[in-house]
Amino acid sequence: MVAMTTIGQLVFSGLLIGSIYALMSMGLTLIFGVLRVVNFAHGEFLMFAMYGAWAFVTYTGFNAYVACLAVVPAMLLYGALIHWIIIRPGLNKPHLVVVFATMGLSILMQNLALLVFSADLFDVPPLNAGRSITIGPFYAKLELLIGFGVTLLATAVIHVVLKSTYLGKAIRATVQDGEAAQLMGIPVPRIFLITFSAGSALVGLSACVMIPLFSVFPSVGLNFVLIAFVVVVLGGMGSLEGALLGGICIGVVQSLSGYYVAPAYGQMFFFILFLLVMVFRPAGLMGRRGEATLGMLD
Amino acid sequence: MTVLLEVKNLTRIFGSLRAVNGVNFTIREGELVGLIGPNGAGKSTLYNLIAGAIRPTAGAIVLNGMEVTGWKPYRAAKAGVARTFQIPKPYRNLNVIDNVVVSALMHHRSVAEARAAAEGILVDFGLSDYLESPIGVLTVGLLKRLEVARAVALQPRLVLFDEIMAGLTPSEVRSMTSLVASLPGRGITVIWVEHVLYAIMNTVRRIMVMHRGQLIADDAPEKIAKDPTVIKAYFGEEMPVA
Amino acid sequence: MTACIALVAIGPSQHMLDVILLSFMWAGLALAWNIAGGYAGLISLGHAAFFGIGAYTSSILTAKAGVTPWIGMWVGAVAAAVIGAILTLICARLRGPFFILSTLAAAEVVRIGALNWTSVTGGAEGLMILPTPSAMNMVFGSKTTYAMLMLIYMVVTYVVTKAIEGSRYGYYLFAIRDDEEAASAAGVNPLLARTGAMCTSAFLTAIGGSLFAQYFLFLDPTNVISPELSFQFALIPALGGLGTAIGPVLGAFVITPLSELLRSYFGGGAAGLHLAIYGAVLIIVMLYFPSGISGALMRHLTWKGDSAR
After folding, report:
1. What domains are defined for chain B?
2. Does some domain include residue A269?
3. Contact partners of C by the rule of 3+ C-beta pairs under 8 A?
């Protein structure tokens, strides 16, 4: 029964960390679903937001969750700015323009961070003095549990917005068929702006949840963006529920493979998982069939 | 005349939609056949099936006695089936002549030969002024002509035209019509989907009509114009024909 | 470029020679990437994997089997081509960002593999090549010789690129890049064309990797198979002008010296400034000059206004 508890614990931890991965990836998947662009600077957005959260905590003394109040709106505005100057001009051009432009943005942001903050790792003090809380037979750090809670809450809120509000319906319409949406009177360019900004705000939220768990340094974005890509692809680009499911899968896979196989190879596992998904079900768990293969950028 | 294309009981189902439902027809070499029908009739799906862009759910396609059912587009092209696209799909980063060269390369080993052949075709099609032009400068009418030129450059046995008249001025329609009419003389059999009815009614000698995935008529244009089933399909009710 | 060759002949400072040598190398690597990315439209952000496979294969063969890199590099190149073919087959149905991300993932698999296969690759500690000069082992005492080597590499990749560009195969690549559906309808087999382009690109990139290994004499996965390096492979042709033969060369000759200059100018006090500028430039170029430096130049120099292939 010891083995069972170990697996159980691993799955539980994987679930929690996976939910945080999901939260981090939701912005990316929404942006992709609506705008059909992949923001290669997504990891750097997270990095900026994490620095912001760190700065807030360090200079005001409040904890990272309070930092949301500052970081989320800041990221919303930043997202709007970037959308305006970089994404929007690139939308009607061949998709590689946005790919390379966002790559350029990623390099710019990384190095600005390097200039301002240096390459040192920054942390915030952990809650509960770093000890774990027991939940039933399992234990977990408080930050992880809070992260899980935030993710569920965020998913629920977004879900409700998408289902019930006009904005949500407009977004869903744009995801399904941008041209038709425009013909129906939906202000698609504004929807693009709102989605990109909201996606960035989500990144801000996840940064606040993540800073108590991970250190921030200029190139931290790269690790996370790769995870985010895998989550988004696994779950299906554009699908919120997919991101949640995908994130949890990745979390669990990482947790289990880190324990049973060498931790170093753990990372390799989810890239292999990614490639397997690409081969067998490129649309992901919840994505629409054929999405990866249609000329979706036409 | 020998039989070039046989379509036997061709069916394609998407979910619950029978886009093409048990279609049967035969095309002979040298024919110039029109294919008309209301929107949603299944004409594009039929083309996609014949050209290999999608696989049939059931049925067979026989080209020149060869079973080509389910062949991929490039194989179908090599077997002699060329097609145009309803919305022209030129190679945007190549200039006009290079667009045709890609097709001409199928039957010409060297680039130089292909270029010469491409130039010849473009001159025939009245595009000699645009040989080195980028795609961006072409109007809709010229783009459609380029589509046709690319198809012809493949030296196909059978060409499938998809609404090549849409968006053309009356004089452009006239010149395109005479171009198309000249093709059987070049050894190219033509199936022609068209909405601009006056263009084909007077040019072709046989028209097939599709409606809701099925072939509802296959006859000479004069008979089609008076066929009550056809009229019903287009207008939904009986209408006196002048 | 001709100026650089002339400079090499004249015999400049060691530092300048370094820059020139690296420019030649990057030009070759950019040209290699461009065959897949610019000509065939297969944008790969994982090319460092091929680079690493080339570098490691020839070096391991030298270290463990005493095989001279002159032969070893071809083995590495073939290995890379095979991996490239497998990758293309796996990603046969993927387009756009899905394809790009898959190349990233695949490269990461290779990197982590190399990092952990310590018995063969030396893992994170890296692999060192004996620095004793020996023409047979492709280790030279003089930088000028290395520069010559890289120059030859660049010239060869340029010649291959131009050959493809004017050939039947080149036309087919452009066709599937610009409109795969139309190209298929014109008789082009997309999978075959894509695989050929990726294999050629991988092959040439791997050769570059082997040459680099012989120059740098030290390899480790984090630096040789990194995503950052992969991005560089794509960015240089993008800046210089995708889809042309001269574009990647221009890109290399602008970026390499420029980043050296910026690094030495700002380096110590403001680490990262040069890269920040690089990033900003990239954004501006991609948004406003998508055909890169070569495209912008061509528009100024040509009066006919033909499109650049």
Report:
1. 3-89+154-235 (3.40.50.300)
2. no
3. A, B
Contacts A288 to C, Cβ<8 Å: none
Q: Per DSSP, which regions of C69-160 are E strands?
A: 127-128
Give yes or no for residue B15 having a pLDDT over 50: yes
Task: Inform me whether the C-beta atom of residue C175 falls under 8 Å from chain B C-beta atoms.
Answer: yes
pLDDT at res. C137 = 76
Chain B CB contacts of C307 below 8 Å: 93-95, 134-136
**Domain contains A275:** no
In a domain, C261, yes or no: no
Under a CB-based contact definition with an 8 Å cutoff, are residues A238 and A30 in contact?
yes
Domain count, chain A: 1
CA C56 to chain centre: 16
Contacts of C172 in chain B (CB under 8 A): 102, 105
Please state the rounded mean pLDDT for residues B191-204: 87
Q: Which of C69, C8, C52, C20 is nearest to C214 (CA)?
A: C69
Q: What is the pLDDT of residues B105-123, one digit of tens each?
A: 999 989 999 999 999 999 9
Asked, for residue A84, whether it belongs to a domain, the answer is yes
| Surface of C (115-134) touching B: CB under 8 A | none
The CA-atom distances, in angstroms, between C191 and each of B75, C40, C305 are 13, 11, 33
* CB C251, CB A89: distance < 8 Å: no
Counting residues of chain A whose pLDDT is more than 70, the rounded percentage is 93
Q: Does C186 sit within 8 Å of B102, measured CB to CB? A: yes
Look up residue B149 and give its two tokens: 């030129």
Which residue out of A42, A111, A227, A279 would a mutagenesis test of the C interface target, given it has the greatest number of C Cβ atoms within 10 Å? A111
Secondary structure (DSSP) of chain A: -HHHHHHHHHHHHHHHHHHHHHHHHHHHHHHHHHH----TTHHHHHHHHHHHHHHHHHHH---HHHHHHHHHHHHHHHHHHHIIIIIHHHTTS-HHHHHHHHHHHHHHHHHHHHHHH-S--B--PPGGGGPEEEETTEEEEHHHHHHHHHHHHHHHHHHHHHHHSHHHHHHHHHHH-HHHHHHTT--HHHHHHHHHHHHHHHHHHHHHHHTTTS-B-TTHHHHHHHHHHHHHHHH-TT-HHHHHHHHHHHHHHHHHHHHHS-HHHHHHHHHHHHHHHHHH-TTTTTSPTTTTTS-TT-
| Count, residues in chain B | 242
Closest Cα in chain A, distance from residue C278 (Å): 7
pLDDT of residue C179: 92
Average pLDDT over residues C220-228: 86
Residue C246's SS3 state is helix
Q: Do C287 and A112 lie within an 8 Å CB cutoff?
A: no
Domain count of chain C? 1
Q: Which domain holds residue C218?
A: 2-224
Residue A38 lies in a domain: yes
Separation CA C113–CA A52 (nearest Å)? 35
Q: Do C175 and B94 touch (CB under 8 A)?
A: yes
- Among A residues 37-56, those touching chain C with beta carbons less than 8 Å apart: 37-38
Task: Note the ipTM here.
Answer: 0.89
Sign of the four-CA dihedral B26, B28, B30, B31:
negative
Under 8 Å between Cβ of C195 and C89: yes
pLDDT at C4: 55
- Closest-approach residue (CA) in chain C for B101: C171
For residue C306, being part of any structural domain is answered with no
Mean pLDDT of A219-226: 86
- CA distance linking residue C163 with residue C146, whole number of Å: 26
Residue C234: Cβ-neighbour burial (10 angstroms; 0-12, 13-18, 19+):
buried
> Which chain C positions have a beta carbon within 8 Å of B44's beta carbon?
none
Mutation target for B interface from C188, C242, C294, C299: give the one with most B CBs within 10 A: C188
- CB contact, 8 Å: A296 with chain C? yes
